[in-house]
Design a protein that fits this description.
The structure holds 2 protein chains of 2 kinds. Chain A is of the alpha/beta class. Chain A contains 5 helices and 19 strands. In chain A, strand 5 and strand 6 form a beta hairpin. Chain A is globular and about 60 Å long. The relative contact order of chain A is 0.15. Chain B contains 1 helix and 6 strands; from the N terminus they run E-E-H-E-E-E-E. A 5-stranded mixed β-sheet of chain B has the order 2-1-5-3-4, covered by helices on one side. The mean pLDDT of chain B is about 90.
Chain lengths: ~325, ~90
């Protein structure tokens, strides 16, 4: 989706003395325009055809200071707290070496601060060199009944969409995580984005291991462009009408396999969406219905009995979200 | 020099860019920068793929054998994991 603005937005990092350490323009507001478009499609205010036009992103000022960010698309407008850019700021901490991966964010807290600074555009927007039209595909909604998957009714949730994960798939993923305590591993999740008259549900049924051209250790997994291409080709090869709905990965305990020797299990808990996980989600799973599952060791729980947490997009940000497990599959 | 029309799609095929009048001596890097901005993709480490192969930024489209009507894929190079700390 194309974005326009009367301003350019810069993330400015300063140290404790107030000196600028780094600044960089932010151009990625796709999460905000998707948030607007998906909520409008969900409520029936916009047709699900992808032809929603460009989005406009503008600063909202209060007493001369930036207070919020306003996004508008196809006649709809919503304002967002500036913290919606927080993940991008943290990504830059990592990507530009302002934060070394092994340090974690806590160590730098208070040493560097970030601020979003809108600056009025001088003159016309840069003219594109190429003649290009970008088509946004419609969201892959299917009009089916949840009962076709063995789900009698969607779980009560305050979230705009329900996330439903097949019990069989969850058991497989938990087993994979339990058997992989020496390194991280990942899968891409598939299933259906089910539209019923009153609600939309993300029904996760299958997985495609993300194994091609990956490297991993106990504390990271790297995906190359070939990883994603291989997943897409495998998805096409399967010839299913399921769609890509997100990804799952594990966080092994720092003591790896030896963790199992500690009886009773320790209080360590490492099931969370890290700064890097958020970078992956933003870059690779940016559609508003895409989710991430993380498997890892829970507190006072054996590492081979992993805990699961789910994350997804809400109001333009990646947040922890609820999920429910169902027994059943495609009928 | 004959120009060409090509397509670039993101890896999950949710956005597709159709590009016309592309000169064959355009570099992969130039094409990538334009497409990344037009698709509003994050400023992460994105690359172009052609026939499953990751393309070198400095190569021209002609050098890597891109032909009219070809579809390229744009995909990121990213790392997940718990070493980066909690958000």
């Amino acid at each position: 989706m194309k974005h326009e603005s009367s301003h350019r937005f810069f993330l400015v990092f300063r140290d404790t003395s107030g000196a600028t350490v780094h600044e960089e323009e932010v151009t990625d507001f796709l999460a905000l325009s998707h948030d607007l478009a998906f909520s409008a499609v969900r409520s029936g205010a916009l047709p699900n055809d992808g032809n929603w036009g460009g989005a406009r992103i503008e600063p909202v000022w209060e007493d001369g200071k930036l207070s919020r960010i306003a996004a508008s698309l196809a006649g709809r407008q919503k304002t967002y707290d500036v913290s919606v850019i927080g993940d991008q700021a943290r990504s830059l901490f990592l990507a530009r070496g302002l934060l070394k991966p092994e340090e974690g964010e806590e160590e730098k807290e208070g040493l560097l601060t970030w601020k979003l600074e809108p600056r009025e555009r001088d003159g016309q927007a840069r003219e594109r060199k190429l003649r290009m039209s970008v088509t946004q595909r419609p969201y892959p909604l299917v009009r089916r009944a949840l009962s076709e998957f063995g789900i009698q009714r969607p779980p009560a949730t305050e979230e705009p969409t329900s996330l439903l994960v097949s019990a069989a798939l969850l058991a497989e993923l938990r087993e994979s995580a339990a058997n992989c305590l020496e390194r991280e591993r990942a899968d891409v999740l598939t299933g259906y984005l089910v539209q019923e008259p009153e609600n939309i549900s993300i029904v996760v049924l299958g997985r495609i291991p993300a194994e091609v051209d990956t490297t991993s250790s106990v504390a990271h997994i790297s995906f190359s462009p070939k990883t994603f291409e291989a997943v897409r080709k495998e998805h096409e090869r399967r010839g299913t009408d399921q769609v890509i709905l997100g990804w799952a990965h594990n966080h092994p305990p720092p003591c790896k396999q030896e963790c199992l020797m500690t009886v009773p299990a320790c209080k360590t808990e490492n099931v969370f969406f890290s700064v890097a996980d958020r970078c992956v989600h933003r870059a690779s799973f940016g559609a508003p219905y895409m989710v991430g599952l993380v498997f890892g060791k829970g507190a006072i729980r054996r590492a081979d009995d992993p805990l699961v947490r789910a994350y997804g997009w809400r109001d333009g940000e990646v947040r922890e979200r609820s999920y429910a497990v169902f027994v059943g599959g495609v009928k | 020099m004959q120009t060409m029309t090509i397509e670039v799609a993101d890896w999950s095929r949710s956005q597709v860019a159709e590009l016309a009048d592309i000169p064959p001596d355009m570099t992969v890097g130039e094409l990538l920068d334009e497409v990344q901005e037009a698709m509003s993709l994050p400023r992460d480490n994105f690359h172009l793929l052609h026939d499953g192969e990751k393309l070198n930024r400095s190569a021209t489209l002609q050098e890597i054998g891109v032909e009219p009507g070809d579809e390229l894929t744009i995909a990121p190079e990213v790392s997940a994991g718990n070493r980066s700390g909690r958000a």
